[in-house]
Structure formats: structure tokens, C-alpha cells
Fold Aminotransferase.
Amino acid sequence: MFSQRILDIDMSEVKRVVSLIKGGNVISFAGGVPSKELFPLKELREAFLEVGEIADVFQYGSTLGFEGLREELLKHLKESQEIHAKLEEIMITHGSQQGIDIIGRVLVDPGDIIVVEAPTYFVALNTFQVYEARFLQVGLDEEGLKTEELESLLRKGEKIKLVYTIPTFQNPSGVTMGEERRKHLVELAEDFDFIIVEDNPYGELRYSGSPVKAIKHFDKSGRVINLGTFSKIFVPGFRLAWLIASEELMEKLEVGKLTTDVCSNTVGQYVTWAFMRKGLLKKHIQRLIEFYRPKRDAMLEALDEFMPENVSWTKPDGGMFIWLTIDDNVDTKEMLEDAVKRGVAYVPGKVFYTLRGGENQMRLNFTFESVERIREGVKILAKLISIS
């Protein structure tokens, strides 16, 4: 009955995490969702009222998206990430996940090779897997994707179609790719004829350090596709995101979207446009930063205080995640059930690798729980690791 491509996708571990924490009073470091208490309900209500008498709000829209919202976005991205793009080069998508799916639909044939970071966002892996891609892994360090390792792989003759990267506050590691590596990656794309997919859901959630330019900023030959989303910086319920690509690529990417849903949520686009044109998005992002920064600091402090010496972790300047590694023969997948029984949940590291790795690692989210529960959860985890 089912297609082989669906049967090949294994989501069992993610389902297992959800089932283990469902309904219990578990301290959850497993998710990656914003705090609903920060949704700007008053401003949203006003924006709904403002656009509610415009008939086009309730009509089908352009496949590329509402022009007013795209114009506001381009102004915002020029200021925040130094992305310079034309109106014809930006498309509103139904969440950034749809952007990944459209890229797979338009650019990936069965057997094409996609290079991914090790570790990387597991749902992107699943999405590209639907299009029967093959994967190669390139490692990360504190400066992000090891572009020299990628260059070595390319010089051995590997012909790749895409590099998928989350360069800023990476999911799951939290690390950020340095500017020189961003430039190097673009140079490699030009020299070896591949496309870079730059996924940036978290880049504007910066709590420390200096901003970095988007990879798209360095793109002079149209080889970078930039993805972003409102889900982490505004509200996820509208399912609005964006995709920026050269006009040549966009011509086909637009067809890819047209054959999936015709257009994105028109009501949400108009409300978001009304919100942005008043300058409220920038203020809201700052509010998020001020709310999340103490949570990140609390988790880092608790890790320092409670974790045994055989444990290390990343120290992200922003985003939502910390990546923890146990320098021992410990399987975090096997340990999860015991952790949940003790009252804390995480995502095991193995799900973030397409080939190998992650058995002794885990992803910890710090944006969802309170400071007090973060400290308690880390303390529980530290005790469990000590006896494992």
C-alpha cells in the first residue's frame, strides 16, 4: 500500500520521545518551540482588526506571496543579515519546512548527493530522503561546518548537488559558522558547481557576541538559497516563512510551490505585514532575546555546576539549543527512558546523524522551561550520567 520512500523514513525515535513525555510533569529539554506567553496578543488583535475589512485578505494570493510582506521582509533582512535581494527573488512559504521540501522537489533527483552537517536537523534529512537523495556527512567544530573537510571530499571527485547548512546557532549543536568559512563555502560552490541551502531559523535570537553576515550576503553567482521563518521570531501558528533565491532558480521553485499549495496563508501574511510595517517585529525580537538569555545562562551555569568531568557541551551565543557530549561508552538513546522516569527529557543525538554518530550525545533545549526547572532538570541528568 505505501510507497517505499515513506517506508524508508524512520521517525520512531522522535515518536518515542513524544510518547515518553506526553501527559507527565516532565522537565522537557526535548522541544524547540517558542514560549507562548511571549506571543504579542494585543498587537496581533489590532493587526487583525486593521486588515479585516480588506477583501483580498480572504482571497487566494500570489504563489510568491503578498507583495507588501515581501517588501517589508527585504528591508528587515537587509538590516539584520545584510541580505540584498530583489522582490522577484523572495517567496513566502508555508513554514521553512516547505522551503526545504520545494528545494528537494525542484533540484534533487534519485541518487543525487547532498552534503549535510554532522549533526544536523533531522526533519531536513527526512525531507530530502523522500526525494531519494544520498547523503555525505561533514563534521562541525566551534566554528561550524568544516569547509576544509568539505573541500578535501570534493577534490577526491565527489559530485554533489547541494550542501545543506544551518550556519547560525545550528540545530542541534548551537555553533555558528565563522565569516571566513562562509566565504570559503561560497567559493567552493562556485568552483565545484553545487547549490548551498542556508537554513536560518534562529539567527536573530542572539544573546551575546557579534552578528555575522548571512552566507547569502557573499553570493555573487546565485548559488545560495536562503531560508528563514517567522516561527521562531514571531508566531509559529501562521506557518509563514520565506525563501530567497536567484531569479533563475526562483522560476522553477515557484512552480514547485504552485504544485503543492498554490499560495501560503493569506490572512497570516497580511497580519504579519501590518505588524512589521509599524516596526513591531524588531521590538518583539528584542523582547524574545531578553526573555531567553537568562534561560541560556541558567542552563550553562547548571551544566558547569552539576555535570561530571567526562561531559562537555557547546556554549552558543544564541538560538535554542546546547549540544552535550559524554566522553564515555554511554548510549543516550538507551538512557532516555530512565531519564524520563526521573523527570527529565532530551532528544538523543543519534537522530541528528544520517550515517553514523551521536550515540553518546544529546540535544538540550533551554527556551521552553523556567530557570528553576532548567536547573532541576540539569541536576537530574547529571546524577543519571554519573551512575550510567
